[in-house]
Amino acid sequence: MHQDLERKLVSASDIQARVAEMGREIARDYAGKDLLLVGILKGSTIFMADLARQIDIPVAMDYMAVSSYGLSTTSSGVVRILKDLEESIGGRHVLIVEDIVDTGLTLNYLVESLRTRGPVTVKVCVLLDKFERRKVDVEVDYLGFLIPDEFAVGYGLDYRERYRNLADIWVLKPEVYTKQGE
Ligand code: IMP
Predict the structure, then answer these.
(1) Catalytic residue among 29, 34, 56, 102
(2) What is the pLDDT of residues 143-169, one digit of tens each?
(3) So where are the chain's domains?
(4) CA–CA separation, 42 vs 109, rounded Å?
(5) Are 117 and 143 a contacting pair, CB within 8 Å?
(6) Contacts with 87 (C-beta within 8 Å, 6 or more apart), sequence order
(7) What element of type H or E holds 97?
(8) Which of 59, 61, 82, 144 is the most buried (most CB within 10 A)?
(9) Are the beta carbons of 51 and 36 closer than 8 angstroms?
(10) Is 102 a catalytic site residue?
(11) How far does residue 103's CA lie from ligand 1's centre (Å)?
(12) Quick one: CATH architecture of 13-148?
């Protein structure tokens, strides 16, 4: 185990099993509909790649990037679109695919913002929910796992751009981010 990691939170095999279930549920719910998966960069990339392959109906995929924590581990509350969609979403069914919901600020902003563009539906699929830290209400339609209020890394989630490539999800040792003054 890497010296910066405290303990394993969700194993790769548990992730794969849950992602397969979520994919089946999504395929059933959107059968016959024009579904666009919107992955939020960069944290959702690995989840999006696995999830999309478990959805056994035709889907389109696009990505957005928004500013979140920057280099810190606490949310500033400011959300800004850094990269917008390339697909137009008018008349389509949009499913936002996100790695984690923490305060809810990012997803709340994204849902509100995409709803103004004329889609039929905007729903949310999240792998991890740090529910104890919620500041604004966000309806999560598909959820992987509820997790405690600890900093998670791996399976796409990073701290300062590292650890995204870990196959399991781990709790980062608090001293890793507190020692850097954040
Ligand atoms: P929210 O706006 O506070 O809900 O934050 C959502 C974003 O914060 C996520 O997309 C992540 O980029 C980041 N984030 C929140 N908690 C964690 C964590 O435990 N590990 C890694 N990134 C996190």
Answers:
(1) 102
(2) 999 999 999 999 999 999 999 999 999
(3) 13-148
(4) 17
(5) no
(6) 36, 60, 62
(7) strand 93-101
(8) 144
(9) no
(10) yes
(11) 8
(12) 3-Layer(aba) Sandwich (3.40)
